[in-house]
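Support request, please re-run this one:
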Amino acid sequence: MKTNIRKTLFAAPAAAVILLSSFAGGQAYAAPAFGDLKGIAQAPQIAALQEAGIIRGAQDGKFDPQGTLTNAQAIQLAVDLYGLNIDNLNFVKKPEASDSFPKADDDAWYADALIIAAYSDLNLPRDLDPSAPATRASLASLLIAAGQNAGKLPVFRLIPVEIKDEASIPDGMSGQMQTALALGLLKLDAKGDIRPNEPLTRAAAAEIVYQAALKSHVVEEK
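Re-run finished. Output below.
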């Protein structure tokens, strides 16, 4: 007998909110402003995402803007931003995150998001390490794949722009880096580099997510 995943997966542990810290999805809600954004350039974007219910802070009311964004948090962000789910899929047995990503912990807070991602055609590598830092390229590529698959981001023909550090872009991501530039998710620096492998602080990640949310009409520019 097939078992619908909705009956077995979505009882998230209470600790998930703490582990996710600044990033979690859900309905929009009124929440106090984060108390650690003074002097942070991305503070307006972070506030807009908080108001939209896309991110929220830890129980101490902080965002930890200089903390490192992990792959697990990036995947949770993409799932939440675009409302990805597998509600219409039936399974002979309950899927586990480690079925698709052997380095995943099936009891971790991120397990449900990784299962959804695995069945959402997001082009994630099987050897993905959930706890490893997300990069500019990996987050932008993830958001583009999720947004386009959800019909929230456009698919279009591009006139490529010159990227000085093109050779450093991971294999298979050159097209998505061009799309990220066209959508404004990423920008070239003064040298013309896109810096694809640069790890992201949570503040820098929020700026990329904000641009994706704008282009997807999840938030409105203020």
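The helical segments are 16-20, 43-51, 71-81, 97-100, 111-118, 136-149, 174-183, 202-215. The beta strands are 3-4, 90-91.
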